[in-house]
Amino acid sequence: xxxxxxxxxxxxxxxxxxxxxxxxxxxxxxxxxxxxxxxxxxxxxxxxxxxxxxxxxxxxxxxxxxxxxxxxxxxxxxxxxxxxxxxxxxxxxxxxxxxxxxxxxxxxxxxxxxxxxxxxxxxxxxxxxxxxxxxxxxxxxxxxxxxxxxxxxxxxxxxxxxxxxxxxxxxxxxxxxxxxxxxxxxxxxxxxxxxxxxxxxxxxxxxxxxxxxxxxxxxxxxxxxxxxxxxxxxxxxxxxxxxxxxxxxxxxxxxxxxxxxxxxxxxxxxxxxxxxxxxxxxxxxxxxxxxxxxxxxxxxxxxxxxxxxxxxxxxxxxxxxxxxxxxxxxxxxxxxxxxxxxxxxxxxxxxxxxxxxxxxxxxxxxxxxxxxxxxxxxxxxxxxxxxxxxxxxxxxxxxxxxxxxxxxxxxxxxxxxxxxxxxxxxxxxxxxxxxxxxxxxxxxxxxxxxxxxxxxxxxxxxxxxxxxxxxxxxxxxxxxxxxxxxxxxxxxxxxxxxxxxxxxxxxxxxxxxxxxxxxxxxxxxxxxxxxxxxxxxxxxxxxxxxxxxxxxxxxxxxxxxxxxxxxxxxxxxxxxxxxxxxxxxxxxxx
Length: 590
Ligand code: 6R9
Hints:
Elements: H1 11-15, H2 31-34, H3 48-52, E1 65-70, E2 76-80, H4 81-97, E3 105-109, H5 114-126, E4 129-132, H6 139-148, E5 151-156, H7 158-165, E6 177-180, E7 191-192, H8 193-198, E8 214-220, E9 228-233, H9 236-247, E10 255-258, H10 265-277, E11 281-285, H11 291-300, E12 305-308, H12 310-317, H13 322-325, E13 334-338, H14 344-354, E14 358-362, E15 372-373, E16 387-388, E17 394-397, E18 422-426, H15 441-445, E19 448-449, E20 452-461, E21 467-472, E22 477-479, E23 482-484, H16 486-493, E24 499-509, E25 513-522, H17 530-544, E26 551-554, H18 568-576
Parallel strand pairs: 1-11, 3-4, 3-5, 5-6, 6-7, 10-11, 10-12, 12-13, 13-14, 25-26
Antiparallel strand pairs: 1-2, 8-9, 14-15, 15-16, 17-18, 18-20, 19-20, 20-21, 22-23, 24-25
Helix pairs in contact: 4-5, 9-10
Bound molecules: ligand 6R9.
C-alpha cells in the first residue's frame, strides 16, 4: 500500500487560487496552464524525466547544450539534450536489466558531473524513485538514509564507496546493486557503471507514469527521531517549471547556474529538473567554493540567472564590491537566494557588486518548490522573503505554549493583523507538495491542522502581505543552508564510549547562519580534557561528515525537561545570554 497520499485536486480548484493579486502573471500552477508549456506523455500520464529530456528531442533544442559540467580542476564536459536522451536511455535500460521495479529507490552519492545527471534523469525516465545524497555525508547518515528509503541501487564513485559506504555495507542487506563510475576495476562488491551502460541500448521509451507516482525521495531533519524521507511525485514538475518561471525568471535562452548540490532539495528541483524543463543551458560546477572561482564561473559561462544561498553571498561580501568588479558580469540578469534569512545588506551588496539586487525565495524540502519569493516583476523588500507565488495560499497561525501553532481539536486560528508573529502555514494542494514521509504516516499527519500545512517556521506579514522570516519554531539547525537534526548528531556522539549524554544546538554564526555546537556530559570516571574533546570531534566528523559538530564543550549538568529530555532551548538561551525563564522569545533572538 502506498504510504503517501496522492492529491487529486481538480484544475478548477487549483485555478481558483489567489491569482487576482498577480495581474502580470499569465500562468497558474494548474495542469491545464502548464500543458501549454509541458507536454505530458504521449499516451497519457506525466513524467519528470520526459519533461526535462524527451520533450526537447523533436525540437530545435535537440542539439543545444543542456549541461556544461565544470570539474574540480576546471575541465568542462558538455552534454546536449540529444546526448542526455541517449545516455539516460542506457541508464534506464540498465535499471531494467537489474530488475528494478517502478517506484523502487535509486540512491546517488556522486559529485556534480555528467554521471550524476545521467543517473538522476535516467532514474526518473525509467519510473524509479530518485534519492540523491549529499556527498559530504559520513557513513552513518548515508547508511541511515539508504536503509530508511529501502535503497535498491546505489550509484557512487570508487573513492566515495571505499570511504563512506564500504564501512557500513554489511549493514545494508537490502541494497542490491552498487554501481561505481570510472574505468578502473570496481571495488569488491560493486560493478562498473560504465561497462553496464555500454552494454545497453541508447533507446528507451518512457513508461506511462501517473502524475501521482513517487518520483523523488528527499531526506530532511526534524527535532526528534530519524531523518524523514519526504516523498514527491511526478506531478511536482508542474510546480518546478512554473515556479522557476515566476521566481527565477527562467527562459529557454538563459544560461543558468544553481550552486546547490542535488543532495539538498534545491539542487534537484532547481539544479536538475526546472532548468532542463525550460530547455536552457545549465552550468554545473563541481568545485569547492572560492570567491574568485565563482566570479570566474559567472564570467566565463556568461551566466544570466544565478540561484545561490546566503552563506555563499556573505562569503563573497567579505571582498566588498571590488573583487566582483574585476569580472565581466554583464551577462547576468537575475540573482536569487534560498535556504536561510537573506540580510538586507546582502540585497544591497548584490545591487552594487553584481549589478542586480538579490531576490530572496522561501521554501522547504516538503514544499518541493519555491512558495514565497521576491519574484520577477515585484518590488523587492530587502529583508522580506516576498509574496506567495500564484496558486499558493499562506497564513500565519496563532501560537500555543510550545511555540508552534495552537491546535484545538482540528482548528487553528489565523492572524490577520500585520506585524504579528505566527507559524507560517500553507494551504495544501500545490503540485510539488510532499505526499508523505516514507513509512511514517503519523509524522506526515502531524504536519497538518485545520486544513493547513504547518511549516515549523515563524514569520510575520506586513500590510501588503510580504512575509518576513523570524526563525524556526523548533530546534532544527540551519547551517550554511543545510538542515541538521540535533537528534542525529546527539545519537552519534552518545555512541562514543566517553559520552553519557549530549545536547546539540545551532550557535549563531555571522557567515554560516548557525554552526553545530554540542554540549557533552562525560561518563563517570572520564576526565574532561582537550584530548577527549579532540577525539570526540574526530569521531563525530568521521561518522557524520559535514553535519558533525564544529564545537564541543563539556557540561556536567545538562538541563532536562520533566520527561528527561535535554532542553536544547535552555542551552540555546544560555548560549545567547538570554534570560532562561523567557524561552518564548528565543526564536526572535537570532
Ligand atoms: C529549500 C530549503 C527549509 C527551511 C525553512 C526555513 C529555512 C529556507 C529561507 C529560509 C529564511 C529564506 N529557509 N528559505 N529561512 N529565509 N528565504 O532550504 O529546504 O533544507 O528543507 O529547509 O530553511 O527555516 O523551513 P530545507
